[in-house]
Design brief:
The chain has 429 residues and is α/β, with parallel strands linked by helices. The protein has two domains: 2-201, NAD(P)-binding Rossmann-like Domain (Rossmann fold), CATH 3.40.50.720; 216-428, NAD(P)-binding Rossmann-like Domain (Rossmann fold, 3-Layer(aba) Sandwich), CATH 3.40.50.720. The chain is built from 14 helices and 13 strands. A six-stranded parallel β-sheet has the order 3-2-1-4-5-6, sandwiched between helices. Strands 10-9-11-12-13 form a five-stranded parallel β-sheet. It has a two-stranded parallel sheet with strand order 7-8. Strand 2 (34-37), helix 3 and strand 3 (67-70) form a beta-alpha-beta unit. The N and C termini lie far apart (52 Å). It binds nicotinamide-adenine-dinucleotide.
Amino acid sequence: MYNKIIREKAIISVIGLGYVGLPIALEFAKKIRVIGFDISEERVEMMKNHIDPSEELVKEDFENTNILFTSNPEDLKQAQFHIVAVPTPIDEHNLPDLKPLLSACKTVGKAISKKDYVVFESTVYPGCTEEDCVPVLEKESGLKFCEDFKVGYSPERINPGDKVHTLTSITKIVSGCDEESLENIANVYEIILKNGTHKASSIKVAEAAKIIENTQRDVNIALMNELSIIFNRLGINTYEVLEAAGTKWNFLKFTPGLVGGHCIGVDPYYLVHKAKQLGYHPHIINSGRFVNDSMGGYVAKQTVKAIANKDKNIRNSHVLVMGFTFKENVSDIRNTKVETIVKELESYKVIVDVVDPYASPKEVEEEYKIKILEKCGKNYDAIIVAVNHKEYINLDENFFKEHLNKDGILFDIKGIYKNKIKDITYLSL
Ligand SMILES: NC(=O)c1ccc[n+]([C@@H]2O[C@H](COP(=O)([O-])OP(=O)(O)OC[C@H]3O[C@@H](n4cnc5c(N)ncnc54)[C@H](O)[C@@H]3O)[C@@H](O)[C@H]2O)c1
Protein backbone atom coordinates (compact mmCIF):
# COMPACT_ATOMS: atom_id res chain seq x y z
CA MET A 1 0.00 0.00 0.00
CA TYR A 2 2.78 2.44 0.97
CA ASN A 3 4.57 1.87 -2.33
CA LYS A 4 1.36 2.37 -4.27
CA ILE A 5 0.71 5.63 -2.42
CA ILE A 6 4.15 7.10 -3.05
CA ARG A 7 4.00 6.04 -6.70
CA GLU A 8 0.63 7.84 -6.84
CA LYS A 9 -1.14 4.60 -7.68
CA ALA A 10 -3.31 4.87 -4.58
CA ILE A 11 -5.30 7.74 -3.09
CA ILE A 12 -5.92 8.59 0.54
CA SER A 13 -9.36 9.57 1.77
CA VAL A 14 -10.22 11.26 5.05
CA ILE A 15 -13.73 10.82 6.40
CA GLY A 16 -14.85 13.57 8.80
CA LEU A 17 -13.11 16.91 8.27
CA GLY A 18 -13.24 18.53 11.70
CA TYR A 19 -10.48 19.57 14.11
CA VAL A 20 -8.71 16.26 13.48
CA GLY A 21 -9.60 15.26 9.93
CA LEU A 22 -8.99 18.49 8.04
CA PRO A 23 -5.37 19.05 9.16
CA ILE A 24 -4.53 15.42 8.32
CA ALA A 25 -6.21 15.64 4.93
CA LEU A 26 -4.38 18.86 4.04
CA GLU A 27 -1.03 17.61 5.29
CA PHE A 28 -1.26 14.48 3.11
CA ALA A 29 -2.59 16.58 0.24
CA LYS A 30 0.69 18.54 0.17
CA LYS A 31 2.38 15.28 -0.92
CA ILE A 32 -0.26 13.06 -2.52
CA ARG A 33 -3.80 13.07 -3.86
CA VAL A 34 -6.52 13.15 -1.19
CA ILE A 35 -10.31 12.89 -1.12
CA GLY A 36 -11.72 14.83 1.83
CA PHE A 37 -15.21 13.60 2.68
CA ASP A 38 -17.67 15.10 5.17
CA ILE A 39 -21.42 14.60 5.57
CA SER A 40 -21.95 18.30 6.14
CA GLU A 41 -22.44 19.96 2.76
CA GLU A 42 -22.18 23.36 4.41
CA ARG A 43 -18.74 22.54 5.82
CA VAL A 44 -17.61 21.05 2.49
CA GLU A 45 -18.63 24.27 0.72
CA MET A 46 -16.58 26.32 3.20
CA MET A 47 -13.53 24.10 2.71
CA LYS A 48 -13.84 24.35 -1.06
CA ASN A 49 -13.50 28.11 -0.46
CA HIS A 50 -10.43 27.49 1.71
CA ILE A 51 -12.23 28.26 4.97
CA ASP A 52 -11.70 25.95 7.94
CA PRO A 53 -15.09 25.68 9.70
CA SER A 54 -13.24 24.86 12.96
CA GLU A 55 -11.25 28.14 12.65
CA GLU A 56 -7.91 26.46 13.38
CA LEU A 57 -6.36 26.66 9.92
CA VAL A 58 -5.85 29.67 7.67
CA LYS A 59 -6.24 30.12 3.90
CA GLU A 60 -2.52 29.45 3.29
CA ASP A 61 -2.89 25.96 4.78
CA PHE A 62 -5.08 25.03 1.81
CA GLU A 63 -2.58 26.25 -0.76
CA ASN A 64 -0.52 23.84 -2.91
CA THR A 65 -2.64 20.88 -1.91
CA ASN A 66 -4.13 18.19 -4.11
CA ILE A 67 -7.49 17.58 -2.48
CA LEU A 68 -11.08 17.04 -3.54
CA PHE A 69 -13.60 18.17 -0.93
CA THR A 70 -16.82 16.23 -1.25
CA SER A 71 -19.97 15.11 0.49
CA ASN A 72 -20.66 12.48 -2.16
CA PRO A 73 -19.82 9.00 -0.74
CA GLU A 74 -19.34 7.67 -4.30
CA ASP A 75 -16.11 9.70 -4.51
CA LEU A 76 -14.60 7.56 -1.75
CA LYS A 77 -14.43 4.63 -4.18
CA GLN A 78 -11.47 6.35 -5.87
CA ALA A 79 -9.41 5.97 -2.68
CA GLN A 80 -7.66 2.90 -1.28
CA PHE A 81 -6.38 4.15 2.09
CA HIS A 82 -9.18 5.56 4.24
CA ILE A 83 -8.71 7.53 7.45
CA VAL A 84 -11.79 7.92 9.67
CA ALA A 85 -11.88 10.95 11.99
CA VAL A 86 -15.53 11.42 12.91
CA PRO A 87 -16.78 12.49 16.37
CA THR A 88 -17.16 10.00 19.22
CA PRO A 89 -19.31 11.85 21.76
CA ILE A 90 -21.26 10.61 24.77
CA ASP A 91 -25.03 10.65 25.17
CA GLU A 92 -27.09 12.19 27.97
CA HIS A 93 -26.31 9.18 30.18
CA ASN A 94 -22.56 9.61 29.65
CA LEU A 95 -22.47 6.47 27.51
CA PRO A 96 -20.51 6.24 24.23
CA ASP A 97 -22.56 7.45 21.29
CA LEU A 98 -21.14 5.48 18.37
CA LYS A 99 -23.72 6.69 15.83
CA PRO A 100 -21.37 8.96 13.81
CA LEU A 101 -18.61 6.32 13.88
CA LEU A 102 -20.83 3.43 12.79
CA SER A 103 -22.46 5.57 10.14
CA ALA A 104 -18.97 6.44 8.80
CA CYS A 105 -18.15 2.70 8.81
CA LYS A 106 -21.24 2.09 6.68
CA THR A 107 -20.14 4.75 4.21
CA VAL A 108 -16.57 3.42 4.05
CA GLY A 109 -17.73 -0.20 3.93
CA LYS A 110 -19.71 0.58 0.79
CA ALA A 111 -16.65 2.20 -0.81
CA ILE A 112 -13.83 -0.27 -0.10
CA SER A 113 -12.49 -2.98 -2.37
CA LYS A 114 -10.01 -5.82 -1.88
CA LYS A 115 -6.59 -4.75 -0.52
CA ASP A 116 -7.90 -1.42 0.81
CA TYR A 117 -6.92 -0.02 4.20
CA VAL A 118 -9.14 1.64 6.80
CA VAL A 119 -7.44 3.46 9.68
CA PHE A 120 -9.46 4.89 12.55
CA GLU A 121 -8.36 8.05 14.34
CA SER A 122 -11.50 8.69 16.41
CA THR A 123 -11.01 8.18 20.14
CA VAL A 124 -12.73 4.97 21.26
CA TYR A 125 -12.58 2.38 24.06
CA PRO A 126 -10.19 -0.54 23.66
CA GLY A 127 -11.85 -3.13 21.45
CA CYS A 128 -14.21 -0.77 19.63
CA THR A 129 -12.41 -0.87 16.28
CA GLU A 130 -12.43 -4.65 15.99
CA GLU A 131 -15.68 -5.39 17.84
CA ASP A 132 -17.92 -2.55 16.61
CA CYS A 133 -16.42 -1.04 13.46
CA VAL A 134 -15.02 -4.07 11.64
CA PRO A 135 -18.35 -6.00 11.54
CA VAL A 136 -20.00 -3.01 9.82
CA LEU A 137 -17.14 -2.75 7.31
CA GLU A 138 -17.39 -6.49 6.59
CA LYS A 139 -21.18 -6.41 6.23
CA GLU A 140 -21.26 -3.39 3.91
CA SER A 141 -18.32 -4.50 1.75
CA GLY A 142 -18.90 -8.24 1.72
CA LEU A 143 -15.14 -8.54 2.31
CA LYS A 144 -13.18 -10.35 5.02
CA PHE A 145 -11.29 -8.39 7.69
CA CYS A 146 -7.51 -8.67 7.49
CA GLU A 147 -7.70 -11.11 4.54
CA ASP A 148 -9.43 -8.88 1.97
CA PHE A 149 -8.95 -5.49 3.62
CA LYS A 150 -6.70 -4.23 6.42
CA VAL A 151 -7.64 -2.16 9.42
CA GLY A 152 -5.55 -0.03 11.74
CA TYR A 153 -5.92 2.47 14.53
CA SER A 154 -3.85 5.62 14.96
CA PRO A 155 -5.06 7.97 17.67
CA GLU A 156 -4.89 11.70 17.28
CA ARG A 157 -3.00 13.86 19.74
CA ILE A 158 -3.53 17.36 18.41
CA ASN A 159 -4.54 19.93 20.95
CA PRO A 160 -6.62 22.83 19.56
CA GLY A 161 -4.86 26.16 19.94
CA ASP A 162 -1.47 24.48 20.60
CA LYS A 163 1.02 25.73 18.03
CA VAL A 164 3.95 23.70 19.44
CA HIS A 165 2.63 20.12 19.55
CA THR A 166 1.30 20.01 16.02
CA LEU A 167 0.20 17.07 13.90
CA THR A 168 3.51 16.70 12.09
CA SER A 169 5.83 17.43 15.03
CA ILE A 170 4.61 14.82 17.52
CA THR A 171 5.23 11.08 17.66
CA LYS A 172 2.13 9.30 16.36
CA ILE A 173 0.96 5.94 17.66
CA VAL A 174 0.08 3.50 14.88
CA SER A 175 -1.28 -0.03 14.92
CA GLY A 176 -2.51 -2.60 12.43
CA CYS A 177 -4.42 -5.85 12.27
CA ASP A 178 -1.22 -7.72 11.31
CA GLU A 179 2.52 -7.13 10.77
CA GLU A 180 2.14 -6.16 7.12
CA SER A 181 -0.56 -3.59 7.79
CA LEU A 182 1.37 -2.14 10.75
CA GLU A 183 4.41 -1.56 8.53
CA ASN A 184 2.34 -0.03 5.76
CA ILE A 185 0.33 2.23 8.06
CA ALA A 186 3.50 3.44 9.81
CA ASN A 187 5.17 4.14 6.47
CA VAL A 188 2.15 6.02 5.14
CA TYR A 189 1.94 8.28 8.21
CA GLU A 190 5.69 8.84 8.13
CA ILE A 191 5.19 10.59 4.78
CA ILE A 192 3.93 13.58 6.79
CA LEU A 193 5.52 13.09 10.24
CA LYS A 194 8.81 14.66 11.30
CA ASN A 195 9.16 12.65 14.52
CA GLY A 196 7.98 9.31 13.25
CA THR A 197 5.63 6.75 14.72
CA HIS A 198 5.37 4.49 17.72
CA LYS A 199 4.27 1.05 16.57
CA ALA A 200 1.82 -0.38 19.10
CA SER A 201 1.63 -4.16 19.32
CA SER A 202 -2.09 -4.28 18.58
CA ILE A 203 -5.08 -2.13 17.74
CA LYS A 204 -6.41 -2.54 21.31
CA VAL A 205 -3.11 -1.33 22.79
CA ALA A 206 -3.23 1.78 20.59
CA GLU A 207 -6.87 2.46 21.52
CA ALA A 208 -6.08 2.02 25.21
CA ALA A 209 -3.01 4.30 25.00
CA LYS A 210 -5.08 7.18 23.68
CA ILE A 211 -7.88 6.79 26.18
CA ILE A 212 -5.52 6.69 29.17
CA GLU A 213 -3.63 9.80 28.06
CA ASN A 214 -6.82 11.77 28.61
CA THR A 215 -8.02 9.74 31.60
CA GLN A 216 -4.74 10.38 33.39
CA ARG A 217 -5.13 14.11 32.80
CA ASP A 218 -8.74 14.08 33.95
CA VAL A 219 -7.96 12.25 37.21
CA ASN A 220 -5.00 14.52 37.97
CA ILE A 221 -7.03 17.68 37.41
CA ALA A 222 -9.79 16.20 39.60
CA LEU A 223 -7.27 15.75 42.40
CA MET A 224 -6.29 19.41 42.06
CA ASN A 225 -9.94 20.43 42.12
CA GLU A 226 -10.57 18.39 45.25
CA LEU A 227 -7.50 19.93 46.88
CA SER A 228 -8.78 23.39 45.99
CA ILE A 229 -12.07 22.65 47.80
CA ILE A 230 -10.11 21.55 50.88
CA PHE A 231 -7.70 24.52 50.75
CA ASN A 232 -10.61 26.91 50.38
CA ARG A 233 -11.97 25.61 53.69
CA LEU A 234 -8.51 25.98 55.17
CA GLY A 235 -8.40 29.58 53.97
CA ILE A 236 -5.23 29.10 51.88
CA ASN A 237 -4.64 29.72 48.19
CA THR A 238 -4.32 26.53 46.09
CA TYR A 239 -2.00 28.13 43.54
CA GLU A 240 0.36 29.23 46.32
CA VAL A 241 0.41 25.67 47.66
CA LEU A 242 1.08 24.29 44.17
CA GLU A 243 3.85 26.78 43.61
CA ALA A 244 5.53 25.64 46.82
CA ALA A 245 4.98 21.91 46.19
CA GLY A 246 6.11 22.36 42.57
CA THR A 247 9.66 23.02 43.76
CA LYS A 248 9.95 19.28 44.39
CA TRP A 249 11.53 17.55 41.36
CA ASN A 250 8.85 14.88 41.00
CA PHE A 251 5.72 16.89 41.84
CA LEU A 252 3.39 16.81 38.82
CA LYS A 253 2.33 20.23 37.56
CA PHE A 254 -1.44 20.08 37.26
CA THR A 255 -3.77 22.91 38.22
CA PRO A 256 -7.44 23.02 39.19
CA GLY A 257 -10.04 24.15 36.68
CA LEU A 258 -13.10 23.37 34.63
CA VAL A 259 -12.75 20.27 32.45
CA GLY A 260 -14.87 20.65 29.32
CA GLY A 261 -14.46 20.04 25.62
CA HIS A 262 -14.81 16.90 23.58
CA CYS A 263 -11.79 14.95 24.83
CA ILE A 264 -10.74 14.99 28.50
CA GLY A 265 -14.27 15.34 29.83
CA VAL A 266 -15.60 12.64 27.49
CA ASP A 267 -12.98 9.96 26.84
CA PRO A 268 -12.82 8.57 30.41
CA TYR A 269 -16.51 7.66 30.07
CA TYR A 270 -15.57 5.42 27.13
CA LEU A 271 -13.12 3.53 29.33
CA VAL A 272 -15.65 3.33 32.18
CA HIS A 273 -18.20 1.87 29.76
CA LYS A 274 -15.80 -0.83 28.57
CA ALA A 275 -14.64 -1.66 32.10
CA LYS A 276 -18.24 -2.11 33.25
CA GLN A 277 -18.92 -4.38 30.28
CA LEU A 278 -16.04 -6.50 31.58
CA GLY A 279 -17.49 -6.58 35.09
CA TYR A 280 -15.28 -3.96 36.74
CA HIS A 281 -16.74 -0.72 38.08
CA PRO A 282 -13.94 1.87 38.04
CA HIS A 283 -13.78 3.99 41.20
CA ILE A 284 -10.92 6.41 40.61
CA ILE A 285 -11.90 7.29 37.04
CA ASN A 286 -15.55 7.82 37.99
CA SER A 287 -14.63 9.88 41.04
CA GLY A 288 -12.45 12.09 38.86
CA ARG A 289 -15.33 12.61 36.46
CA PHE A 290 -17.69 13.40 39.33
CA VAL A 291 -15.37 15.99 40.88
CA ASN A 292 -14.58 17.67 37.56
CA ASP A 293 -18.20 17.75 36.43
CA SER A 294 -19.16 19.37 39.75
CA MET A 295 -16.73 22.29 39.54
CA GLY A 296 -18.99 24.67 37.59
CA GLY A 297 -21.69 24.32 40.25
CA TYR A 298 -19.06 24.74 42.97
CA VAL A 299 -17.77 28.00 41.46
CA ALA A 300 -21.34 29.35 41.20
CA LYS A 301 -22.18 28.42 44.80
CA GLN A 302 -18.97 29.97 46.15
CA THR A 303 -19.81 33.15 44.26
CA VAL A 304 -23.36 33.24 45.62
CA LYS A 305 -22.05 32.66 49.16
CA ALA A 306 -19.54 35.49 48.77
CA ILE A 307 -22.26 37.89 47.53
CA ALA A 308 -24.52 36.91 50.47
CA ASN A 309 -21.63 37.47 52.88
CA LYS A 310 -21.55 41.09 51.72
CA ASP A 311 -25.14 41.45 53.01
CA LYS A 312 -26.47 41.68 49.48
CA ASN A 313 -29.61 40.13 48.09
CA ILE A 314 -28.86 37.18 45.82
CA ARG A 315 -32.09 37.51 43.84
CA ASN A 316 -31.41 39.96 41.00
CA SER A 317 -27.77 40.36 41.94
CA HIS A 318 -25.64 40.89 38.84
CA VAL A 319 -22.69 38.70 37.84
CA LEU A 320 -20.39 39.00 34.84
CA VAL A 321 -18.82 35.81 33.46
CA MET A 322 -15.73 36.44 31.33
CA GLY A 323 -14.95 33.59 28.92
CA PHE A 324 -17.30 30.90 27.69
CA THR A 325 -15.24 28.57 25.46
CA PHE A 326 -14.07 25.23 26.86
CA LYS A 327 -10.45 26.44 26.97
CA GLU A 328 -8.38 29.53 26.41
CA ASN A 329 -7.79 31.25 23.04
CA VAL A 330 -10.07 28.98 20.97
CA SER A 331 -13.63 29.39 19.71
CA ASP A 332 -14.64 25.81 20.58
CA ILE A 333 -17.68 25.78 22.89
CA ARG A 334 -18.35 22.03 22.84
CA ASN A 335 -19.13 20.68 26.30
CA THR A 336 -17.96 23.91 27.96
CA LYS A 337 -18.40 23.78 31.72
CA VAL A 338 -18.86 27.55 31.90
CA GLU A 339 -22.46 26.74 30.99
CA THR A 340 -22.93 25.04 34.37
CA ILE A 341 -21.69 28.17 36.16
CA VAL A 342 -24.20 30.32 34.29
CA LYS A 343 -27.12 27.91 34.77
CA GLU A 344 -26.34 27.38 38.47
CA LEU A 345 -26.17 31.15 39.11
CA GLU A 346 -29.44 31.62 37.24
CA SER A 347 -31.05 28.96 39.43
CA TYR A 348 -30.46 31.41 42.34
CA LYS A 349 -32.17 34.14 40.25
CA VAL A 350 -28.86 35.88 39.71
CA ILE A 351 -28.74 37.97 36.52
CA VAL A 352 -25.75 36.77 34.51
CA ASP A 353 -23.95 38.60 31.69
CA VAL A 354 -21.47 36.63 29.58
CA VAL A 355 -18.70 37.94 27.33
CA ASP A 356 -16.11 36.06 25.28
CA PRO A 357 -13.79 37.38 22.56
CA TYR A 358 -13.68 34.01 20.74
CA ALA A 359 -17.05 32.26 21.09
CA SER A 360 -19.59 32.78 18.32
CA PRO A 361 -22.68 34.42 19.91
CA LYS A 362 -24.86 32.64 17.34
CA GLU A 363 -23.48 29.19 18.19
CA VAL A 364 -23.72 29.81 21.94
CA GLU A 365 -27.33 30.95 21.60
CA GLU A 366 -28.22 27.91 19.47
CA GLU A 367 -26.40 25.38 21.61
CA TYR A 368 -26.97 26.71 25.13
CA LYS A 369 -29.65 29.44 24.89
CA ILE A 370 -27.15 31.82 26.47
CA LYS A 371 -26.49 35.33 25.11
CA ILE A 372 -22.93 36.47 24.60
CA LEU A 373 -22.81 40.27 24.99
CA GLU A 374 -20.64 42.40 22.74
CA LYS A 375 -19.48 44.48 25.71
CA CYS A 376 -19.73 44.03 29.44
CA GLY A 377 -21.66 46.49 31.57
CA LYS A 378 -20.81 47.98 34.97
CA ASN A 379 -21.84 47.69 38.61
CA TYR A 380 -21.54 43.95 38.89
CA ASP A 381 -21.78 42.26 42.29
CA ALA A 382 -19.25 39.70 41.10
CA ILE A 383 -17.04 38.99 38.10
CA ILE A 384 -16.01 35.43 37.33
CA VAL A 385 -13.01 35.10 35.00
CA ALA A 386 -13.80 31.59 33.78
CA VAL A 387 -11.32 31.20 30.91
CA ASN A 388 -7.77 32.60 30.81
CA HIS A 389 -7.96 34.02 27.29
CA LYS A 390 -4.87 36.05 26.39
CA GLU A 391 -7.04 39.19 26.28
CA TYR A 392 -7.73 38.76 30.01
CA ILE A 393 -4.27 37.86 31.28
CA ASN A 394 -2.99 41.43 31.60
CA LEU A 395 -6.10 43.05 33.08
CA ASP A 396 -5.32 44.84 36.33
CA GLU A 397 -7.22 45.57 39.52
CA ASN A 398 -8.43 48.90 38.11
CA PHE A 399 -10.30 47.11 35.34
CA PHE A 400 -12.22 45.05 37.89
CA LYS A 401 -12.78 48.06 40.16
CA GLU A 402 -14.32 49.95 37.24
CA HIS A 403 -16.75 47.11 36.50
CA LEU A 404 -17.68 46.03 40.03
CA ASN A 405 -19.95 47.86 42.45
CA LYS A 406 -19.14 48.50 46.11
CA ASP A 407 -18.03 45.27 47.81
CA GLY A 408 -17.88 43.50 44.45
CA ILE A 409 -16.13 40.13 44.22
CA LEU A 410 -13.62 38.74 41.74
CA PHE A 411 -13.59 34.96 41.19
CA ASP A 412 -10.43 34.16 39.26
CA ILE A 413 -10.87 30.47 38.42
CA LYS A 414 -7.39 29.91 37.00
CA GLY A 415 -5.59 32.13 39.51
CA ILE A 416 -4.19 34.44 36.82
CA TYR A 417 -4.41 37.56 39.02
CA LYS A 418 -2.87 35.93 42.09
CA ASN A 419 -0.91 38.53 44.10
CA LYS A 420 -2.20 41.35 41.86
CA ILE A 421 -5.50 42.05 43.63
CA LYS A 422 -5.18 44.06 46.83
CA ASP A 423 -8.52 45.79 47.55
CA ILE A 424 -11.22 43.64 45.97
CA THR A 425 -12.54 40.46 47.62
CA TYR A 426 -10.65 37.81 45.67
CA LEU A 427 -11.54 34.14 45.20
CA SER A 428 -9.88 31.49 43.07
CA LEU A 429 -9.87 27.72 42.80
N1 LIG B 1 -10.41 17.92 18.49
C1 LIG B 1 -9.38 17.41 19.11
O1 LIG B 1 -8.56 18.12 19.64
C2 LIG B 1 -9.17 15.92 19.17
C3 LIG B 1 -7.94 15.48 19.63
C4 LIG B 1 -7.71 14.11 19.68
C5 LIG B 1 -8.71 13.22 19.29
N2 LIG B 1 -9.93 13.69 18.87
C6 LIG B 1 -10.91 12.72 18.45
O2 LIG B 1 -11.00 12.77 17.03
C7 LIG B 1 -12.35 12.50 16.60
C8 LIG B 1 -12.86 13.65 15.75
O3 LIG B 1 -12.94 14.81 16.57
P1 LIG B 1 -13.02 16.27 15.97
O4 LIG B 1 -12.72 17.20 17.10
O5 LIG B 1 -12.22 16.38 14.73
O6 LIG B 1 -14.56 16.35 15.61
P2 LIG B 1 -15.33 17.55 14.85
O7 LIG B 1 -16.66 17.61 15.44
O8 LIG B 1 -14.46 18.75 14.80
O9 LIG B 1 -15.42 17.05 13.35
C9 LIG B 1 -16.02 15.93 12.94
C10 LIG B 1 -16.41 16.07 11.48
O10 LIG B 1 -16.96 14.83 11.10
C11 LIG B 1 -18.12 15.07 10.32
N3 LIG B 1 -18.95 13.89 10.40
C12 LIG B 1 -19.78 13.50 11.39
N4 LIG B 1 -20.33 12.31 11.10
C13 LIG B 1 -19.82 11.93 9.91
C14 LIG B 1 -19.99 10.80 9.07
N5 LIG B 1 -20.78 9.81 9.43
N6 LIG B 1 -19.32 10.76 7.91
C15 LIG B 1 -18.52 11.76 7.53
N7 LIG B 1 -18.31 12.86 8.27
C16 LIG B 1 -18.95 12.93 9.44
C17 LIG B 1 -18.71 16.33 10.88
O11 LIG B 1 -19.55 16.98 9.94
C18 LIG B 1 -17.45 17.14 11.21
O12 LIG B 1 -17.04 17.94 10.13
C19 LIG B 1 -13.14 12.26 17.88
O13 LIG B 1 -13.15 10.90 18.16
C20 LIG B 1 -12.32 12.99 18.94
O14 LIG B 1 -12.51 12.46 20.22
C21 LIG B 1 -10.15 15.03 18.79
